Amino acid sequence: MFSKRSIRKNFLIKLIFASASLIFIFSSVLYFFIEKSIYEEKHQELLGYAKNISNNKAIYPINIESSDALLGLSIEIIYLKKIHQDIGLYEKTENTRTYLTLIYPFKLDNLSYLKITKEISQTKRILDKILNYIFIINIAGFLLVIIYAIALSKMLISPVEILSSRLSNMNEHLIKPIKVKELPNEFEPLGETINHLITRIQNFVKYQKELFIGTAHELKTPLAVIKLKNQVTLIKKRTPEEYIDALKVTNKTIDEMNIIVSNILNIGRQEGAQLEKPVEVDIINFLREKADNFKLLAENEGKNLHMNFEPSGFMANLQISLLNQIVQNFLQNALKFTPKDKSVTLKSSQDDVGLLIEVIDEGCGIDEAIDLFAPFKRQGNKSGVGLGLFLAKSAADALGAKIEIKNRVDGVDGTVASLQINSKLSCTLAKKKSNLKNTKAIF
Question: What is the rounded distance in angstroms from the CA atom of residue 277 to the CA atom of residue 350?
């Protein structure tokens, strides 16, 4: 029924063992408490008889109207060889009858003692019945514990079975997110992680198909140009200058194909980067360094790069190469489409989700109806293969981050490229102490 690696089996064994131990301990304590209480009551009863006799009183108090208390009671005086101040109490069994005997000092001057014996066979039988009942209750309780443990373990793994059933019935055409709100609270993080993976799979399947089709189209066009140019060149003899021009066109087309091939290779490199071990990095310091590098490039092109970073530090565990690819692509596109004497702003801010990184330019804006993250999608009249944002989207999915590009809504032409880093998925850490003023610890 269960394999050696079954979590449910281990849970059942531990729960049954713990419950059985608890039942045994509780029952033992209960029985010994009952037994001690009854024997203490008998002890006090015999001690009361002894005190009454020693004080020349009746054997039992006057307020006891029945003589049933004297049934099975035997009183005699014994003499010992030496004085014993202690009161002795012991039990013995003879011919299936059990007796409780009390030795009590009577007259110490002649070493006489009262020996009071009372038959407690009935009491002993009652204790035996109590022990049997407790044993029966323990067996019934143990069986109930087994049934309860099986039902509880099934209830606890039912969400996992539901998730497994839903995932096993999925394929690349029928992948649907899991309804996290229908899961128990303890399984919500697992459901969110699975939905994140499902989203990545959906994007991977969608964009990989477009990538293959786009790659074939992008490579087919320059090959057709090369072939047509060569065919035209070979129709008749031409001057050396014309052959040179034809070769130049061919080489230019080949260079364009090499760019496409290089970008496709970058996709493969990025897949490998996703498998890199996450490292602890201060994202704010990383943004500062990246902004300093691009500031020189912006000034060289006659453009301005502004920076505004909040908070002063944000530590996280992630693949730095993937983050670098996203931020670098944002800045490159922003500077490419921003006219001379205009500005680009790199900013960050902390919100309820985590850290929001934004690159704001003053370019021509975008057509928001176009999926710019699809491979080979281009916007504007600038050169490019159209794989940069596709790579940025793949990197963001690998980081568990959300990437978005939209037009500005502040009345200025341009776009806002944003990266929302989820602190839950990026393992946000407390920022280490530094010499920076007003540095805050981010969790």
Answer: 25
Q: Are 433 and 357 in contact (CB under 8 A)?
A: no
- pLDDT greater than 70 at residue 403: yes
304: nearest Cα among 362, 336, 330, 343: 343
The pLDDT value given to residue 29: 92
CA angle 395, 399, 401 (to 5 degrees): 95
Q: How far apart are CA 417 and CA 365, in angstroms?
A: 11
198 Cα distance to chain centroid: 18
Which band of pLDDT confidence, cut at 50, 70 and 90, is reported for residue 393? Answer: confident
Contact 338, 303 (CB under 8 A): yes
Q: CA of 2: how far to CAs of 7, 12, 17, 154, 167, in Å?
A: 9, 11, 17, 12, 22
Give dist(CA 71, CA 62) in Å, integer: 17
Please give the full DSSP string across 324-368, using - where no structure is assigned: HHHHHHHHHHHHHHSPTT-EEEEEEEE-SSEEEEEEE--S----T
pLDDT digit string, tens, across residues 93-123: 888 888 888 888 877 677 788 888 888 888 8
Contact (Cβ atoms closer than 8 angstroms) between residue 413 and residue 364: yes
**Domains delineated in the chain:** 7-144 (no CATH), 190-273 (1.10.287.130), 279-429 (3.30.565.10)
Residue 232: its H or E element: helix 188-234
- Count of residues making up the chain: 443
pLDDT band of residue 435 (cuts 50, 70, 90) is very low
Question: What burial class does residue 411 get, using C-beta atoms within 10 Å of its C-beta: 0-12 exposed, 13-18 middle, 19+ buried?
Answer: exposed
Instruction: Note every long-range contact of 298-304, with CB atoms under 8 Å and residues 24 or more positions apart, other chains counting.
Output: 298/335, 298/344, 301/335, 301/340, 302/340, 302/341, 303/335, 303/338, 303/339, 303/340, 303/341, 303/342, 303/343, 303/344, 304/341, 304/342, 304/343, 304/344
Per-chain mean pLDDT for the chain: 78
Element (H, E) at 371: none
